[in-house]
Every structure is written in structure tokens, then in C-alpha cells.
């Protein structure tokens, strides 16, 4: 890649990608174009990173993680992927109707989280469906 004025380069990243997800690309760009500008640290939204850190904590406490979100959402897909990467069965669901009752058979602790754009009404619907399927108690994990 040849650039006529590398001192005029800048980058942005998709807001639904975590800092961890973009760091390798940013480092490679900065190695090639040291003068390249990016967003100031106080301009970066850490909501996606915080959500991903939280799902890792959640996965350590569960034997199933359900992620409410659209299959087209990179953020929601990533949350489910992170839980699976930590060795926990995980499913991305768009709504309560997508829950397969077989998923919860024998499960003691079911984690529930949602992608950034999933409305609370969908999360509430999933909670209601889990109760219908026999979930006895709900506890909320406090974030940092």
C-alpha cells in the first residue's frame, strides 16, 4: 500500500468491536504509518469491551449462556463466541421463541446477556420463558 501523504492518515473503528478485537489491526497500521491518527482515548466507547468482559465473567459461573441479539449483530455473535471459547455451551437467540427446551435440561446455572442493540423487552421475554421452563431463581451480576 502506497500513500502519498502518510502524515494525513487517520483511522476509526466500528463501535461494536471491542478494543481487544481491533488492537492487532491498529498496531499493524501504526507500525506501517507511525504518524497515523486515531481517536483520543477519552473518545473511545468502552461499552462493547465492558460487555465482553462481563460475558467472560458470566460464563465462568454458568453451564449455559444465552445471548439475546440479532444474528446480524457482530456484537451479539461475539458475546456468544466468547462464552463458547471459555468452554460453555452458548446460543444466540433473537427472542424467547427460539429457546430449545432441550438446551436447559440438566443445567444448573444459565447465564443471560444481550447484545448492545437488543431491547430490554426481549430480555424480559427470555427470562419469562426460562421461568416457564423451570428456572427457579434469577440473580443479577453487578458490573464494575
Automatic annotation (TrEMBL):
GO terms for biological process: dimethylallyl diphosphate biosynthetic process; isopentenyl diphosphate biosynthetic process, methylerythritol 4-phosphate pathway. The keyword Iron applies. Keywords: 4Fe-4S, Iron, Iron-sulfur, Metal-binding, Oxidoreductase. The keyword Metal-binding applies. Its EC number is 1.17.7.4. InterPro entries: LytB/IspH (IPR003451). It comes from the Bacteria. It holds the Pfam family LYTB. Its cofactor is [4Fe-4S] cluster. GO terms for molecular function: 4 iron, 4 sulfur cluster binding; 4-hydroxy-3-methylbut-2-enyl diphosphate reductase activity; metal ion binding. PANTHER family: 4-HYDROXY-3-METHYLBUT-2-ENYL DIPHOSPHATE REDUCTASE (PTHR30426). This is 4-hydroxy-3-methylbut-2-enyl diphosphate reductase. It comes from Xanthomonas perforans.
Amino acid at each position: 500500500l502506497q500513500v502519498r501523504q502518510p502524515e494525513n492518515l487517520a483511522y476509526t473503528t466500528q463501535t461494536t468491536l471491542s478494543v481487544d478485537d481491533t488492537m492487532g489491526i491498529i498496531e499493524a497500521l501504526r507500525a506501517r504509518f507511525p504518524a497515523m491518527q486515531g481517536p483520543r482515548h477519552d473518545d473511545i466507547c468502552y461499552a462493547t469491551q465492558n460487555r465482553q468482559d462481563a460475558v467472560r465473567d458470566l460464563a465462568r459461573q454458568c453451564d449455559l449462556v444465552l445471548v439475546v441479539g440479532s444474528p446480524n449483530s457482530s456484537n451479539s455473535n461475539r458475546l456468544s463466541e466468547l462464552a463458547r471459547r471459555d468452554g460453555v455451551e452458548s446460543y444466540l437467540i433473537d427472542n424467547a421463541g427460539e429457546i430449545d427446551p432441550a438446551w436447559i435440561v440438566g443445567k444448573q446455572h444459565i447465564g443471560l446477556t444481550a447484545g448492545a442493540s437488543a431491547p430490554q423487552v426481549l430480555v424480559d421475554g427470555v427470562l419469562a420463558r426460562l421461568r416457564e421452563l423451570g428456572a427457579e431463581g434469577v440473580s443479577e451480576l453487578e458490573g464494575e
